[in-house]
Design goal:
- The protein is of the alpha/beta class.
- It has two domains: 175 residues, Glycogen Phosphorylase B (Rossmann fold); 177 residues, Glycogen Phosphorylase B (Rossmann fold), CATH 3.40.50.2000.
- It contains 15 helices and 13 strands.
- The strands form two sheets. It has a seven-stranded parallel sheet, sandwiched between helices.
- Helix 8 links the parallel strand 8 and strand 9.
- The longest helix is centred in the C-terminal third of the chain and has 17 residues.
- It is elongated.
- The two termini are 15 Å apart.
Length: 362
Amino acid sequence: MRIIQLLPELNEGGVERGVLELNREFSKNSINSIVISNGGKLVDEIIKNGGEHIKLDIASKNIFTAPYRIYKLKKLLKELKPDILHFRSRVPAWLLFFANKKLKIKTVSTVHGFNSVSLYSKIMTNADRIICVSGSIKEYIQKNYNTEDKKISIIPRGVDFTKFNQESLDREFIKEFKEKYNLNNYFIASVVGRITQLKDIETFIKAIALVKERIKIKALIVGSVRADKEKYFKKLTNLVKNLKLENDIIFTGSQRKIAEIYSLSDVIISCSKKPESFGRSIAEALALNTPAIATNHGGVKDIIIDGENGFLFTPSNELELVKYILEISKLNKNLKPHIEKNFSLDKMVRDNINLYKGLLNC
């Protein structure tokens, strides 16, 4: 079986990570894996893990260059003769729509997010089979595009248990990290991800100010700050200063040892204002038996069983968040089985392969 995955670029992000994981696992399963993109820093990883990468500009939204790029894509597909074309973004979807019109190669799309409702976004439902990364995404496309139920499969992003398990943790890093930031003998609450307005980190900071009055707590804000988010980052640091939390809240910047951050934390929190399509950080934390609290919308509702492995709270409600932080110790300590059963990388790969095989046999 020859599978081509198409995405705009291979840099950072959840879409890219999913492509990398499938490429690696396809190679292990003797599936011919090809990725078409406009390149990026992760190309070498595609090749290292047994796949092939072909550079083609399927990222640009320039309509004047689109006809030539469609021609190039069509020519490429004729040469490669794939069994399945799996696209993951709107620009590649549109280019493929025209390039594949006469070739009629079977297509699969993965809808990764709550894109704005429009004809431009509707192209993601124009495939023989549609993968949604959560139940919330499925509801969204069915509501807005009347997508046939029989075409849709829910296949969540998978947690890689070779990385997110207690046995493979770097214990020395954890020890040094806790000493560096004076975390020993404190309750540790963390948010993990890029620092953006959508993450509503203000609510997290306000909640920490209130929790601090009740328990010994340190808070970690783990994530990078893009140049266009510097103004927002300044707003957050000013809020920390105004609430006199300089010794209680730590901006760690981007961290490579994310599994270790999850493990050393007592709770992982997501305060996202906008529904997220899945909630990978929540699933990964639970795989390491770290409970989670998240806003009550989006794909995270598939992951958190409210009151069992975490809590769901009303967006922007810091008082509700405070209540759940204080109650987190009451939860079940063995959280991994739920993630292992429903959100493992192995299951994600198996479900993708079975979907491809089913499509080719129909």
